[in-house]
Amino acid sequence: MIKLEHIFKWYTVGGSRSFILKDIHLEIDQGDFVSIMGPSGSGKSTLLNVIGLLDEPNEGTYHFMGEDVLAMKQKKRTALFQSHMGYVFQSYHLIDELTVYENIETPLIYKNLSGKERKAIVGDLLDRFGIVGKKDLFPAQLSGGQQQVVGIARALAASPKLLLADEPTGNLNSRQGEEIMQLFKQLNEDGVTIIQVTHSEKNAEYGKRIIHMLDGQLKIGKPEA
Predict the structure, then answer these.
(1) Does some domain include residue 77?
(2) Residue 2 counted as domain residue
(3) Which of 59, 143, 144, 164 is the right S-S partner for 171, CB 3.0 to 4.6 Å?
(4) Parent domain of 208
(5) 156 phi and psi angles, rounded to 5 deg
(6) Among residues 38, 75, 24, which one has the least CA distance to residue 53?
(7) pLDDT band at residue 90 using 50, 70 and 90 as cut-offs
(8) Is 33 in contact with 205 (CB distance < 8 Å)?
(9) Per-residue pLDDT for 173 more than 80?
(10) Angle, alpha carbons 65-69-71 (nearest 5°)
(11) For residue 13, how many other CB atoms are within 10 A of its CB?
């Protein structure tokens, strides 16, 4: 599903390169569940953003579902993201001017769905996450944990083949966090490929593979049995 080869990402500071990603090679199969761990500044979120088409490497190749992503025009890349990927951001990225209902509905507007179909999908997600009573509120009226739950519901709205999650439980209490990880586990069993960045060893162990990052490089390992 995903193949990254010789991925480099750097910023030029004072005439010299400061590397964020160094010679990344990574393959992820359909149906995999990968946890990426590492200290702050190790390049975890940048790698996730490259996979999620939100950032572009300076060098390397990226194939997604057999297509050369970096050779695509921006419009096609955007369409690929909207069709196949869901993204749970650490800082929510909800649209302040839209209600909870409208935020969750946003990814569905790009699909060829009727208003009735969109309403049914959003209604199901509101119910599943226990936020029916919040549907007409705006993000500023929600707690951090509630905003994170809305962000996760929005990421799932379009039934993505690939779910990318950057610290998905970072703003949730332990009970909510456990529920979200159980949901991810179920989604993965249903065939959704998941890549999560996490500091939590407990959350990482939900993955089928754990990848450690240090100084922009990968160190591959497996969760203990």
Answers:
(1) no
(2) no
(3) 144
(4) 30-57+84-221
(5) -90, -10
(6) 75
(7) confident
(8) no
(9) yes
(10) 135
(11) 8
